[in-house]
Amino acid sequence: MSLQPLVSLYRYTLEPIAPFTWFGINVCSLDLVATFRLCIALRQVREALHAKHERLAPAEERSFLREASTTLMVVFGGEAIIGPLLGVPPSFMLSAISPGLYIAAQAVVEYIPVLPSMSLNTELPLSLVDGFTRAMLLCSLIPPAVITHASPVISSSPWTLLLSSLVIANGGFFITNMFSFLEPTPLKLTTPPELKPYGWTTTDLWCAPLITGLYALLTHAQPFWAEFHGVISTVLGGAGDKVEPMDPESARALCALILAGIFSTRTAKDFGLVWKRSVAEKLKTQ
Fold it and tell me: Helix 120-135 and helix 29-54: axis angle, to 10°?
């Protein structure tokens, strides 16, 4: 299967676009898609929780500052945790473009009168978009911070790479859930879903290090992954010759396809498209 169409799509969506280029700001269409997708999804989740809470007790009045803080926490929370550990300043400390973009998008989303609630018809197509944007984070944004690190110990450590991916991709949501930012109540400390029974099965939790590891394996991002790729090739019956790495753009495109499949499966399961076992058993007896 040729990955060239996806590679070309990435190249197109990563081109800076107007009117941002008029002011020397590098914002691409992929940035806008990812930004609005997140802001809309957070509002949908917030409204669903609000509707559920209103049946029990009056909800606290929301402010735009809280909504914007929630979005920024989701986006940059993990980076704020891992940055000091790596000795790398978080991106929001170096440039105001990305935080400003999210705040502006949040303001636009808040002024939309009505948003449809999450459903299979809306979330299934958007799962493909999520796979496309998440691959950008896990393959092109997180690995360079580790593999180009000044310390040889850090730059060559596969554990550091996988842990960084896990924390950066999930740390923001973890903090947001822990302090109930999305709940229609005053901020309070609570147990995040990831720490509840079977929370480790959350798709976003395990897919981050999995995809980053796969990308590193395919591109030989670190010496460990090059050796590991050779071992896998030998076990699978390879000739024992040196395994050549895949080019980064093709590897990212492949990871995007895998993520799109993972997220589509999750959506189908969450909205009941996947048959339950009891239904399948009933059909077998008919």
Answer: 140
The two tokens of residue 134 are: 């998440």
Supply 160's token pair: 């550091």
The amino acid occupying position 62 is R
What is the C-alpha separation between 215 and 166, in angstroms, rounded?
A: 14
Q: What are 64-103's pLDDT values in tens digits?
A: 999 999 999 999 999 999 999 999 999 999 999 999 999 9
225 alpha carbon, distance to own chain's centre? 23
Task: Please calculate the CA angle 209-118-65 and round it to the nearest 5 degrees.
Answer: 80
Q: Which residues contact 206 (CB under 8 A, 6 or more apart)?
A: 200
What is the radius of gyration, based on Cα positions, of the chain?
21
Provide the pLDDT for residue 96: 93
How far is the C-alpha of 132 from the C-alpha of 9, rounded, in Å?
10
230 class by beta-carbon count within 10 Å (0-12 exposed, 13-18 middle, 19+ buried): middle
Assess whether pLDDT exceeds 50 at residue 246.
yes
Model confidence at 278: pLDDT above 60: no
| Rounded Cα–Cα distance for residues 203 and 210 (Å) | 11
Write out pLDDT tens, residues 27-42.
999 999 999 999 999 9
The values of phi and psi at residue 16, to 5°, are: -60, 145
> Tokens 């440039």 appear where?
95
- What contacts 52, CB < 8 A, 6 or more positions away? none
Work out the number of other CB atoms within 10 angstroms of the CB of residue 124. Answer: 15
Structure token pair of residue 193: 């879903």
Distance CA 70, CA 234 (A): 48
Using an 8 Å Cβ cutoff, are 182 and 59 in contact? no
3-state secondary structure of 188: coil
- Single-letter amino acid code for the residue at 169: A
User: Please, which pLDDT band fits residue 279 given cuts at 50, 70 and 90?
Assistant: very low
